[in-house]
Specification:
mainly beta
């Protein structure tokens, strides 16, 4: 499988609803992030315009104590599930359709509040049936009490 040279970063701002909580539980963030991207596929020698939605579900285990910037909670279990939804990819020169698909689940332990990134590798098939890797990066930032999502593509 060839790696596409471009990555997509998705920024999720997770709420720290558990700050100061004495009870263990699960915090859940469920978002759908529309995105557009342009990637070069070397096997077909053309630029491909990609458009669709990245669906991301994040489960954060609630720590038993308070988490502050000065005294973060360490090793908090977090599960991230992401999948491509309604993604279309069209060759800029040929007009041919490509297919991007896949789902990724990742379990990590992280300090909160804080930020971290999770690499995701999906698959794209060319019109000729070749399979290539389509890399996305999910960046999570945990602070405040709101959820905000931004999608940045190549160099933004």
């Amino acid at each position: 499988m060839n790696m596409l040279s471009k990555t997509l970063a998705v920024f999720l701002i997770l709420p720290l609803l558990f700050a100061g909580s004495a009870q263990a539980g699960i915090g859940l963030t469920n978002v759908e992030v529309p995105f557009t991207d342009t990637v070069f596929v070397s096997s077909t020698n053309e630029w491909v315009n990609v458009r669709g939605t990245l669906h991301v579900v994040v489960q954060v285990a609630t720590p038993s104590g308070s988490c502050t910037t000065a005294d973060p909670c360490s090793d908090v279990p977090i599960t991230i599930h992401s999948n491509l939804h309604d993604v279309t990819a069209v060759g800029a020169t040929s007009g041919k359709s490509y297919q991007a698909f896949g789902a990724v689940s990742t379990d990590v332990n992280e300090a909160l509040p804080g930020s971290f990134t999770i690499p995701n590798n999906f698959t794209m098939s060319t019109p000729e049936g070749d399979l290539i890797e389509y890399a996305l990066v999910v960046a999570l930032i945990a602070f405040a009490a709101t959820v905000d999502v931004h999608v940045l593509t190549g160099g933004q």
